[in-house]
Amino acid sequence: MMILLNPATGLAVNPTEISTMMIERNPMLRLVITMKGGFELQIRSCPSEGVNVEQLHKKLLEAV
Prior knowledge:
alpha+beta, CATH 2.40.50, single chain, two-stranded antiparallel sheet, 17% helix, 1 helix
């Protein structure tokens, strides 16, 4: 199952391929995802574009 991270770009991930993820507040709110292969994704929170990293974090945790 793929989870859509950014509707504007179509970026999606398979939650089973995630190694680690955390929410950072430096200075903007963002979700940092490290994939099992070592690739890192950084998703900035932008509610006006439909990207809420806190909701994404919760959705990804529930999917595993």
